[in-house]
Structures are given as structure tokens and as C-alpha cells.
Design brief:
The chain is an all-alpha fold. The chain is elongated, with a radius of gyration of 29 Å. Helix 1 packs across helix 3, helix 2 runs antiparallel to helix 3 and helix 5 packs antiparallel against helix 6. The chain has a two-stranded antiparallel sheet with strand order 1-2. 55% of the residues lie in helices and 1% in strands.
Length: 314
């Protein structure tokens, strides 16, 4: 754990019970790093802030005047620095570490309530309504009007939601819309955690659309989630061949994570029956025949008409 002495050194200030001084030092240090590229540096700085504020609380409550007596006291609000952002559906850190990161905020910070809702202390499944309420309260908090706080919260929230999968699905669409993260999903300079959460929001939207009975790929979507049968029904082979190939081609191109909902053996069974295209652009067609093909047909018809007219004339 980082010691309070290390926290003061990281912030570049002397031990003090004044939290305003601590926050100003933190804000100054934050401007010197890029949280999106230097994740470890950002988490170390957050850990230093939490450690310094915890030491400041102890100093304020103590009758000891010499602040340096607290210099080597370990902080109880340590934020782990070995918790990278998620770049795939599988998380790289365990739940305990995720919770430590989420709860490294002061008691009065609305971000802490989001962490408590997403990572319950007793290890139970998160209450989704409680999580929605906590996120709504965070986004509506007056502190979000402060540029530094809002930018820091945006980055923090992206990492917490990424590591809070799948429970965080309950709030991801609302958060993505609030911050406008969808526009960043395909950006050249994409922030990893934000890009992941935005992609997850798009995956959830895709799943919701496919679950609609009126969607043209609804039946293939439902069929592929079932366990693979011993033999494929002839009706399915004829009727679902094209829709299943189109569905798999679409999600593999746009929403690869959605395929995890399907039975792998069932998907493999369709590999030979309905080979999946790669969504490359094709010339426009009518009735399955390209315009180029129709031109050849028209030319052939005209040729036959001409040959017939010549035969009649002779």
C-alpha cells in the first residue's frame, strides 16, 4: 500500500490537513499527464490524492500538532495500479480489485455511491435500480459543472463501467448518450475504456433489435441460441439458410461480441449450409442479378431479335 509520505511526495506538497491545498496540487499534477495514455500514472495520482486526504482527515481529528508524525501512516484508501482498462468482454482483474478502484473516492463524492452500487460489499448481485439512481445522481451533481471534475469523472466512469460488466449494462446506454461516446467509437485517437463502453452500448442496442419479433433476423437469432440439434431440419435448411448467413455476416462485422450468445456447435453446423460472406461491397442487383448482368441479357435479347429480323427479311 502507498504510504502517506509517498502521497505527499507524489503531489509535491508538505503534509497538511487542508483539503483545498491537496485538491489544488492534484489538479496541477493532473494537467501534466494524459489519463488516456498514461493509465498507471493517472491511477497513481488518484491513489496519492486518496492517501493524502485520508491522512489529512486523521491529522484534523488528532490532537498532535506535528503533521510529520503521520508521514509514514499507510493510507486505507489505496487505489491499485495494476487494473488496466478492459479491451474485451472478459475482465482482467478480479472483483475485489475492481471494487477497490471504484471505492477510492471520498465519502461525500457521488462517484463512491456508484461504486458501492456496482460492487456490493457482500459480493451479491448489484441492485440495478440502485445503480441507475446512483449514476443519475452523479450526472446531475453540481460538481459536474466543473471542467476538471467532469473530465476526471468521465474517464473514471468509463473504466468502472468497463470492469463492472455485465451488471453495468443497466446504465451503459444512458451514460454513453450523456457523454456522446458513440461519436468516439471510431475515432482515430480513441480512448480505450470509452471506446469499449461505446461498443458495448451498440452491442446492447443490436441485441434489443434482434429480440424484436418484427425484426427480419429475429428467428435466426433465436434459433442460433438453442443447443445444436442432432440433425438439421429440412425446413430450417431451406428457409433460414440466407437469413442466418446474413445475420452472422452482419454481427461479425459490426458487433462481434453478440455471437457469444449463440451456441457454438449450432453455428458450426451452419458453416457448410450457409457460408458467411465478408460484407464486401457488391454492385447493385435486381432479383439477384447485377446491373452488369442485366446489360448482358439485354444485349443478348437485342442480338436475337436482330438475327430473327434478318432471317425473316431473307
Amino acid at each position: 500500500m502507498m504510504q502517506a509520505k509517498a502521497a505527499w511526495r507524489s503531489l509535491g506538497i508538505e503534509p497538511t490537513p487542508d483539503k483545498k491545498t491537496i485538491r489544488r496540487a492534484y489538479a496541477a499534477k493532473l494537467k501534466t499527464i494524459d489519463p488516456d495514455r498514461d493509465i498507471d500514472g493517472f491511477l497513481k495520482l488518484r491513489s496519492a490524492l486518496a492517501g493524502a486526504e485520508a491522512a489529512a482527515d486523521r491529522m484534523a481529528d488528532s490532537t498532535i500538532d506535528d503533521a510529520t508524525e503521520w508521514a509514514d501512516e499507510p493510507s486505507s484508501f489505496e487505489m491499485p495500479i495494476d487494473n488496466p482498462p478492459v479491451g474485451a468482454m472478459d475482465r482482467s482483474a478480479d472483483t475485489a480489485s475492481d471494487r477497490d478502484v471504484a471505492l477510492a473516492e471520498p465519502e461525500d463524492d457521488p462517484r463512491r455511491r456508484v461504486g458501492e452500487a456496482l460492487f456490493p460489499e457482500d459480493g451479491s448481485s448489484p441492485d440495478q435500480q440502485r445503480l441507475r439512481d446512483a449514476v443519475a445522481a452523479l450526472l446531475a451533481d453540481d460538481r459536474m459543472a466543473q471542467i476538471d471534475y467532469a473530465a476526471e469523472t468521465e474517464d473514471w466512469l468509463a473504466h468502472v463501467l468497463a470492469h463492472g460488466q455485465p451488471a453495468s449494462d443497466a446504465v451503459i446506454p444512458a451514460v454513453v448518450e450523456h457523454f456522446g461516446w458513440m461519436a468516439e467509437r471510431d475515432a482515430a485517437r480513441q480512448r480505450p475504456a470509452i471506446g469499449y463502453v461505446a461498443q458495448r452500448a451498440d452491442d446492447l442496442d443490436c441485441i434489443a433489435s434482434l429480440r424484436d419479433p418484427g425484426h427480419r433476423w429475429h428467428e435466426p437469432f433465436v434459433v442460433l441460441q438453442r443447443r445444436a440439434p442432432k440433425a438439421m431440419l429440412l425446413d430450417h435448411r431451406i428457409r433460414l439458410k440466407a437469413p442466418i448467413a446474413q445475420l452472422l455476416a452482419s454481427i461479425r462485422y459490426h458487433n462481434p461480441a453478440v455471437e457469444s450468445l449463440f451456441d457454438a456447435d449450432h453455428v458450426a453446423m451452419w458453416a457448410d449450409v450457409a457460408p458467411v460472406d465478408d460484407l464486401r461491397e457488391r454492385p447493385p442487383s435486381v432479383g439477384g442479378v447485377s446491373w452488369f448482368g442485366w446489360m448482358w441479357i439485354a444485349w443478348l435479347v437485342l442480338l436475337l431479335i436482330r438475327v430473327a429480323a434478318m432471317a425473316v427479311g431473307s
